[in-house]
Design a protein that fits this description.
Number of helices: 15
Largest sheet: 8 strands, mixed
Structural class: alpha/beta
Oligomer: single chain
Radius of gyration: 21 Å
Length: about 375
């Protein structure tokens, strides 16, 4: 047993393997991250920010949430504000929702008084943090999507949600698609390669027209497709905004990614070993946006547009915000202090790696400013 892993969580996973035999990597990842008591996301340990394992855009600057709010106001003009609902999937610490609502309140108080803001949060500990951040704003929490009523008019938002869904790992072996399973041998976790645990894996790659080379190892995020299908089922008229890091298929399955995209985050360092620091490190993989576009369309979510985070922020008007900062700053030091976080949002490490996918339903050929230059 690894000394730097949670011994209780390791024991729980080992018991599952002894009951069922080797488990799929997807199930191993799900237990590591989402066990309701021992999983990574269930712990009280800080995960985001200087004391945590990574940063997210809302933690750098409120400008990010303001620009999302600006896009929502444009959507509101398309849909009208009667019965308008915003649903955020996974609220983190509540910072993004707080920044969005603060912007809407400043820019359109009438809409702010009418809009309903819902957060889907499965983690009760994160819900406590969100409640503290959002105290004073009218937010409704749900443990899962089942808390919503179908027929929603408005917008679903997720920021760095899909990359954290548990993924199946597959490998092309002897010209056949095989799957990575996890076993417990001689006091440690080992990988074993077996036939796929579900026919959906072969269907996924065939449907996407993806031919993997011999020895190519990668991920398939089937949970993301199930999530998108459910979101589309609740949305009657409006948009789905997905912000995350990843690529379209043509880029994602290049030969230089033949080991896959799985990464682990711990105290602002990365590694590729998910079998260490179990319960204490995050495990993620890059999002296949082509899959979200393809399956979204099959489930009634039409493609609105796709761009990177930098282009989205520029298109939606972040430069106007920057000019305001220049006018309001008391001196150069104050200006740089407020500008550097915005610059980080747009530098290649975040601005080009993170993408913005927008899909729509119940509207004919909408055009949004965040996707096209004004």
């Amino acid at each position: 047993m690894e000394d730097d892993s949670s011994p209780e969580l390791v024991k729980l996973i080992v018991e599952e393997i002894r009951k069922k035999g080797p488990i799929s990597f997807r199930d191993f990842m799900a237990m590591s991250l989402y066990d309701p008591i021992l999983g990574y996301y269930a712990s009280y340990r800080a995960k985001i920010g200087r004391e945590g394992d990574y940063y997210t855009a809302p933690h750098l600057t409120p400008v990010f949430g303001a620009m999302i709010g600006k896009q929502i106001l444009e959507i509101r003009r398309l849909l009208g504000d009667e019965g308008f609902i915003i649903v955020e999937m996974g609220g983190g610490k509540g910072i993004l929702s707080s920044d969005i609502l603060d912007f809407i309140k400043r820019e359109d108080s009438t809409f702010y008084d009418r809009v309903q803001y819902h957060i889907i949060e499965t983690n009760p500990r994160l819900k406590e943090k969100e409640f503290g951040t959002l105290n004073g704003n009218r937010v409704i929490w749900h443990n899962n999507l089942d808390g919503l009523q179908p027929g929603i008019k408005g917008v679903f938002i997720s920021n760095e949600l899909v990359d954290s869904f548990p993924v199946h790992q597959v490998i092309m072996e002897d010209n056949r698609l095989r799957e990575v399973f996890v076993d417990w041998v001689d006091g440690r976790f080992v990988e074993v390669i077996k036939d796929p645990s579900t026919d959906s894996l072969e269907y996924y790659f065939k449907e996407m027209g993806i031919d993997l080379a011999e020895g190519y190892r990668t991920e398939a995020n089937l949970d993301a497709l199930k999530w998108l299908e459910r979101v589309g089922g609740f949305l009657d008229k409006g948009f789905v905004i997905t912000i995350d890091y990843g690529y379209l298929s043509d880029e994602l399955y290049q030969s230089y990614r033949s080991r896959g995209t799985l990464l682990c985050y711990y105290r602002h360092t990365t590694c590729e070993d998910p079998y260490t620091r179990i319960g204490y490190q995050d495990i993620t993989s890059h999002v296949n946006f082509s899959a979200l576009i393809h399956w979204g369309k099959k489930k009634g979510l039409e493609f609105t547009g796709f761009t990177n985070q930098t282009n989205f922020l520029i298109n939606i008007g972040v430069e106007d915000y920057i000019r305001d900062i220049a006018k309001e700053s008391t001196d150069y030091r104050d200006y740089m202090k407020r500008m550097l976080p915005i610059k980080n949002l747009m530098m290649p490490a975040m601005g080009e790696t993170f993408k913005v996918l927008i899909q729509h339903k119940g509207i004919k050929s909408p055009s949004l400013r965040g996707l096209t230059s004004p």
